[in-house]
Design brief:
This protein is of the alpha+beta class. It has three domains: 53 residues, Defensin A-like (2-Layer Sandwich); 89 residues, GMP Synthetase, Chain A, domain 3 (2-Layer Sandwich); 60 residues, 2-Layer Sandwich (Ribosomal Protein S8, Chain: A, domain 1). The chain is 43% helix and 23% strand. A three-stranded antiparallel beta sheet has the order 1-3-2, with helices on one face. It has a three-stranded mixed beta sheet with strand order 4-5-6. Strands 7-9-8 form a three-stranded antiparallel beta sheet. β4 and β5 form a beta hairpin. α4 crosses α6 and α7 packs across α8. It is elongated and about 90 Å long. It starts with a strand and ends with a strand.
């Protein structure tokens, strides 16, 4: 009796893999669970389900269907390019992938919000070809945002990895909380322009405090079109910061 040992993310996936290796349909497979899989946290650290499987006793393959079409008809059909007939429409496929990702992402975020005892819910704000923006709407979300948005950034990173891995997709997620990111970005831009005015008035460089790469990028972009100053980053690691300098 042929026996195979296979694994999959779920029991269903493992049994389907066994059926493929045995060359039969799923209903012809008998299996024994060797090891039950574990989901892990946010889909990370997940362990597979392992099964031993064989073709069930007494299974008789269904006879192959009798072809009644004349050879001429088959030859005519063979001339039709199969790739064209089966090629999915790109917009439709992209929309299906996006929905698949969202169906994984939103429950994941809801579970996290609930675990933090927050009265809030994730809402999809926009969907592009490779980017999805989600805003967590609710009250008193300071715990979720963290200092300078660090907790929100960490959560965005984790759920992006976990949801894409679970859905088999590659979407970039922008996670916001009650419009925090927009307010924070606007604050950084105001701060950049204030420093720039001081640099122009005094003719001396302004050295800003250490910032994350994202914050530094916002500063650079805010002053990119200013004809009187230029910006650059210096320092290493956590001490890397922006310098605003007057143009000579």
């Amino acid at each position: 009796m042929d026996m195979v040992e296979v694994s999959g993310r779920t029991l269903e996936e493992a049994v389907q893999t066994a059926a493929r290796e045995l060359g039969v349909s799923v209903d012809a497979v008998e299996y024994e669970i060797v090891e039950e899989g574990a989901k892990g946290f946010l889909g990370l650290g997940q362990s597979p389900t392992v099964v031993k499987a064989h073709i069930r006793e007494g299974y008789v393959p269904a006879p192959a269907p009798v072809r009644e079409k004349p050879v001429v008809a088959e030859e005519a059909e063979a001339k039709v390019p199969a790739a064209k007939a089966e090629q999915p429409k790109e917009p439709k496929a992209a929309a299906e992938d996006a929905q698949k990702f969202i169906d994984v992402l939103l429950p994941m975020l809801s579970d996290i919000v609930e675990a933090m005892s927050l009265k809030a819910k994730p809402v999809v704000k926009s969907v592009d070809a490779d980017e999805i923006v989600v805003d967590i709407e609710g009250n008193d979300l300071a715990l979720l945002i963290g200092k300078h948005g660090q907790t929100l950034d960490a959560l965005q990173y984790l759920v992006s990895i976990a949801a894409n891995r679970a859905a088999g997709t590659r979407f970039r997620i922008i996670l916001d909380a009650e419009g925090y990111r927009q307010r924070y970005n606007e604050m950084l831009e105001r701060k950049a322009h204030e420093y720039a005015r001081s640099v122009k008035a005094q003719g001396q460089e302004a050295v800003l405090e250490p910032q994350s790469a994202r914050d530094r990028r916002i500063i650079h972009m805010a002053l990119a079109d200013d004809p009187d100053v230029y910006t650059y980053s210096e320092g290493e690691g956590d001490n890397r910061h922006v310098v605003i300098s007057p143009k000579k």
